[in-house]
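Quick one, T. Sequence first:
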Amino acid sequence: MSESTLEPLENLGDEQAEERPPFGLGTSLPPAELRTKTEGTFPYAADLWAEGLLWAAVLRSPHAHARIVSIDTSEALRMRGVRAVLTHEDLPAHSFGGERPVFASEVVRHHGEAIAAVAADHPDTARMAAAAVQVTYETLDPVTDPEESFEAAPLHPDGNLVRHIPLRSGDPEAVGEIVVDGLYRIGRQDPAPIGAEAGLAVPRPDGGVELYTASTDPHGDRDLAAACYGLSPDQVKVVVTGVPGATSDREDQSFTLPLGLLAMRTQCPVKLTASREDSFLGHAHRHPTLLRYRHHADAEGRLVKVEAQILMDAGAYAGSSGEALAAAVSFACGPYVVPNAFVEGWVVRTNNPPSGHVRGEGAMQVCAAYEAQMDKLAKKLGVDPAELRLRNVLATGDVLPTGQTVTCPAPVAELLEAVRDEELPPLPKDTPEDEWLLPGGPEGAGDPAAVRRGVGYGVGMVHMLGAEGADEVATATVKIHDGMATVICAAVETGQGFSTLARQIVQDVLGIEDVRVAPVDTDQPPAGPACHGRHTWVSGGAVERAAKMVRTQLLQPLAHTFGMSAELLQIADGKITSYDGVLSTTVAETLEGKELWATAQCRPHPTEPLDADGQGDAFVGLAFCAVRAVVDVDIELGAIRVVELTVAQDVGRVLNPAQLRARIEAGVTQGVGAALTENLRTPRGLVRHPDLTGYPLPTALDTPDIRVVRLVEERDVIAPFGAKAASAVPVVTTPAAITSAVRAATGRLVNRLPIRPQQAVANP
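Structure tokens:
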């Protein structure tokens, strides 16, 4: 580049002279959609519009279990403005909807199951028409206790038992000098997305349909829709809109599948925006779980054997319950060395609402139980709870009870020591000015003298990517045109930051600051569902490989001109330089007039299913977290205030510091909800108070000080960039730490989540 193209910095205007923010991996690059989301102009599915739009509504069952005697749609069809009313009889004869039907036909299996769907010219008309559909039910006794499901009559053609996993490792006759038992119950947590489900379906001239939804697995949803509609996959297109929050996969087929049917029937665009009640009734929840444990330890507190029974409630349909059970059984002993382990796990169908993907499924439930057991051992031995854990923690090279060797970094001891050694927060003063610091808030606490402080610990683990032989693969394309790079990848941005990461990867590899990520639809090659941190690893890996291929295309001609290898050139800060400094130019100048592109795939090493003894290399990678909780408990009223949560996490590599801390804090907050407030109550299978008033989420006032004191960066050599999933493991670990602290403050057992006030009242 000639010197004439350079302009001295002092000649630039003030605005141009300001230092440009850094970009690329390791920087806190803000999301591209930050401004539009802040201003409220970001397009979500609920904002979509089309010419000739009709509105949809879904009629849902008021019963948890019933036989459908008859369905009469005539009154609804007579209403002015109603264009279509569909039931199971309107499904194509050759359609296949999997194990969960689009509409209930002969039997209702859970409260809120879809019975019929209506399309009308106004949303109020659609809702009234849905209410006008007359359904005659013969109510049946619901099976709501998972323990009763084993002996109950089949609730589904596939039976009541979804999966049974026995895990056997070591000597069944091994016995420790110290033995503790426990029974634990974990409630039904709802993902409670900020934005309720919405979607738009548009008919196509070829007889197919386009679905515009906040899907987190567009290709999976496309294939399911095509099977339900009796179409080939190329006749169904899923276009991903803005996702208004997804702390799990949006398994909301009761919203999206009727839309496509209505659009094809009416040959008009059809839109549905779910009410909050519809949202609670339609999507999946965390698996309620019953856990029985027995821990054996020697006189020094080292674990000898763990015995456990785990019973998970799948609700009416299996969904992803088999995967959740595999995680629960595999991690039943926690991040500890256990030479002998015998675990039995079952997941069964009931007439409760369906369960499915929620962050840390399976791992969160067992973490609360095994950490309670560690507290019991510490108390019985008279040992500090943190010290007892340190005597047993896993490290790289240790073997899990499944027989899999931990080959990834496992700095569990370092994490636990980091939170243990942090200074504790000061005690609150017993003065009126500081009443807001006490449990219950202003004027809500009882006698300050009844407040006790407790400190507790939680150490947790999760697996990353799919497990047990899941084919994890993603494809990405990187294109450069007019000096701007475009990433095409079907990995959905659910709030986890993938679109920002994709931009950073291309910036890092190619030195181009101007990078955009194309909207996602099923015309692109698949990238898989947005769960278990897979997009950071698999989709990010595909983007990196494609960008490196473009980099080679960019550098090879330049290297050839100067008679050197392309490997001797490097790109940094938008400049291309050679190892010896002879060549120095800019990426922009080298790209001038060129169009480059490349497509690449990323597929991690394969895993295998657990065998008949629960053995096998089932997981690609693991992530760990330690949390210290400090709580204040009013031991007379049972009111709990979480004062502080101190977090240390195994992250592999920090790719975006601000984004990473935000994800950890969000996960911790979700864990606070699971520990203290979130429990979707379903007496006799009926969802009680399906709204955000009856289902209290933690607010800013409930969220404590969250101190991220250590991010351990030991790169996983098999992971692209060496990074690990960040969102799920703090959700898994936080409830265990909070219950541990409440036990320390009250001396009570505290064996269920969320914690009830009566559990936090100290023993007399």
